[in-house]
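User: Show me a protein chain along with its predicted structure.
Assistant: Here is one chain, sequence first, then structure tokens.
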Amino acid sequence: MQRKITKTVTIGNRTIGGGHPILIQSMTNTRTEDAAATIQQIERLAAAGCDLVRCTVPNMEAAKALGEIKKEVSIPVIADIHFDYRLAIAAIAHGADKIRINPGNIGSADKVRAVVDAAKERGVPIRVGVNSGSLEKEILEKYHGVTAEGMAQSALAQAALIEEMGYDQLVISIKSSDVLMCVRAHELISAKTMHPLHVGITEAGTLISGNIKSALGIGLILYQGIGDTIRVSLTGDPLEEVKSAKLILRSLGLRSGGIEVVSCPTCGRTKIDLIKLANQVEEMVADLPLDLKVAVMGCVVNGPGEAKEADIGIAGGVGEGLLIKHGEVIKKLPEDELLAALREELLHWGEN
């Protein structure tokens, strides 16, 4: 796929747009005022592969805590602001690498200008965020409800307002829980702006439904070359958002690195606990710094053949299984030794 080359925007120690790699974003669910807990969660997210993290700033204590948080974390911190322009200014003063605002709920043009001036002074990018649930009354009336066209128009108008105030370090985000509406909105806005786009399906849902909706929506958008950062919004542990985002990017060929685990569906030939084994393998390889494919197969009938596309794999039998490397069987082992044998091979990968 050919990606659209958007404007370059620097967020802390990361750069988006201009053909740079698509970055993964998540959001903390700690109280930002609790700096210690927030720092701990951000570092866990960073270790899992998160590139950017957003923290809510609902009060002045949270804004001030950003200064302490920034000293301890390794990835850029984005301040999420609603309604009170003073919180946006305070977040910038305390080191936020980017702020997320909806100019429509910040207040008067003078208040928006005050935020823009503070951001411009420190070179802090502004993410203009528009959700389907926050469209202006006149937009809703014009389009007779929430539509992709209305979302795109609202976001472009708000970005133009900030540009007219003399600042163009912007990222635009338009999100909806309606997958196809969200996809269409991104198609429309991408054709009309060069600003980088942050892509996601808002209020996607719990782990299963949220992952399916996000994979479909984000995947359809990214496949058209649209998007510079992504977030998989899930009701759950933010770490799951990062894992899912990495898989989406890897599945589309937009990110390499890390171990990809493939496993077959269970069937009547399966004689081992394949579900448990596949989950154990996925957990075991999560932190290994290798770029390869691992196969976990449930039987020795098709296992060796199906594992040929993988670099290494295991296939289960009756109380035993095979260790397969580059499509060739290298060992037959008792079932309870398969996992350890696979781990040993991976820990010494490339030595032989």
